[in-house]
Design goal:
The structure holds 2 protein chains of 2 kinds. Chain A is of the alpha+beta class. Chain A is built from 6 helices and 3 strands; from the N terminus they run H-H-H-E-H-H-E-E-H. Chain B is mostly helical. Helix content of chain B is about 70%, strand content about 0%. In chain B, helix 9 packs antiparallel against helix 10. The longest helix of chain B is centred in the middle third of the chain and has 31 residues. Classes of the chains: A alpha+beta, B mainly alpha. At the A-B interface, helix 3, strand 1, helix 4 and strand 3 of A face helix 1, helix 5, helix 8 and strand 1 of B.
Chain lengths: ~100, ~280
């Protein structure tokens, strides 16, 4: 049986990072979330949020949707099925490690 | 070390890599001086690094609350809808020349309303829909749009499907029934009414009813809340009844307007308070 530390090291780093974990948690509670709300609720800066969203998008965990509201460009995030599965797997693993 | 502490102390990977490189470089002469120099204290690179770790459960609850409440325009949809329903009741009574008495309330029924009352009543649901769209736009512009999560619970989905089917079958039946009644049964004699009977002829009335009922068919699935649906249906029914020349039964239909209106206002005020609390937490 693997020890707790070994299992800790094997956690999905893409999900484990706190800012990304917050993003995924927010997304898991809604169908789609606009950039403006995500920025406010996670208290991340625009650059930081953009950077983490890009990483999550590259991993296939979230989808970035670009649209317009009137003349204003709007960026919206959506959790993919893969992202939801990764988040659920992450919490399962974390719970398994905790004594 | 507990997982919780590790999660909260987790810093950006780039910073960790740089620190590791600096530690290794102390004994490595090939490493340039700027990297070998003592590392400065890690300044907070971002709000995420300096801010305390957010409570994930709270984040989740805030998102859910915001999604639900912003969808109802922060309670304003209920408040406005309730006020409009009270206005419908007032317009109906005004159409009777304020001649409402306990007798008419409990025994009699309202007589046909004039056309102007129908047109005033027709404005209310349209104004309600426009106001909701404006309020939603205002909230989304300011705080961002969040679509509520669609529950994948099979039972809930089944229930929704059954309700939608019933609504879609019932509405055309009501429409056809109304038209059948219009063509078969003559309207009450205008002389019995304290005000003039509707001036629209039968064909126009049928068109008006069809237009309103079709609009209701389209809009009904969009109204998700129970109170919201009830407010919308009542707001649409009032002008249909007046344009069709139906008598508004004071004992059943008419009382529904102020009662549902007050319930809607109460629910709206509760939602508004919750929404303000959610926004305060977000700020």
């Amino acid at each position: 049986m693997k020890d707790a530390f070994q299992r800790l090291l094997e956690l999905d780093r893409m999900v484990h990072e706190p800012a990304r974990l917050a993003i995924l948690t927010v997304l898991s509670s809604a169908e789609t979330v606009e950039f403006k709300f995500m920025e406010r609720v996670t208290r991340l800066t625009k650059g930081n949020l953009n950077s983490h969203a890009t990483k999550l998008e590259a991993a296939g965990y979230l989808e970035v949707l670009k649209s317009f509201r009137g003349k204003t460009p709007v960026t919206t995030f959506r959790l993919t099925a893969e992202g939801r599965a990764a988040l659920e797997r992450y919490w399962r693993e974390v719970r398994a490690i905790q004594p | 070390m507990s997982i919780r502490i590790l999660c909260r102390n987790h810093v950006d990977e780039d910073w960790s890599v740089l620190q590791t490189l600096r530690m290794n470089s102390i004994t490595d002469p090939s490493v340039p001086d700027e990297i070998r120099s003592p590392a400065p204290a890690p300044a907070p690179a971002s709000a995420s690094a300096s801010a305390p770790a957010p409570d994930l459960e709270r984040l989740s609850a805030l998102t859910r609350d915001y999604a639900r409440l912003s969808h109802d325009q922060g309670g304003w949809a209920g408040i406005c809808g309730g006020i409009f329903l009270l206005a419908v009741a007032a317009v109906e009574v005004w159409g009777q020349g304020w001649g409402l008495s306990w007798r008419t309330l409990w025994i009699g029924s309202f007589s046909p309303q004039p056309l102007r009352t129908g047109l005033v009543l027709l404005l209310l649901p349209l104004l309600w829909i426009a106001l909701r769209a404006l309020l939603l736009r205002h909230i989304q512009d300011r705080y961002g749009a969040v679509a509520p999560r669609i529950e994948s619970d099979d039972r809930r989905e089944r229930e929704l499907r059954v309700k939608n089917t019933i609504a879609r079958v019932m509405l055309p039946l009501i429409m056809l029934g109304g038209i059948w009644m219009l063509t078969r049964h003559p309207l009450p004699a205008p002389a019995s009414a304290p005000v003039a009977a509707p001036a629209l002829d039968l064909g126009l009335r049928i068109v008006a009813i069809l237009a309103l009922a079709s609009g209701l068919c389209v809009l009904l699935p969009r109204w998700e809340g129970r109170t919201e649906r009830m407010v919308g249906i009542l707001l649409f029914i009032a002008p249909v009844c007046v344009l069709a020349g139906f008598q508004m039964g004071a004992d059943d239909t008419m009382l529904a307007f102020p009662i549902i209106g007050l319930i809607s206002i109460g629910k709206g005020v509760r939602d508004y308070r919750q929404f303000r609390a959610t926004l305060r937490e977000l700020a």
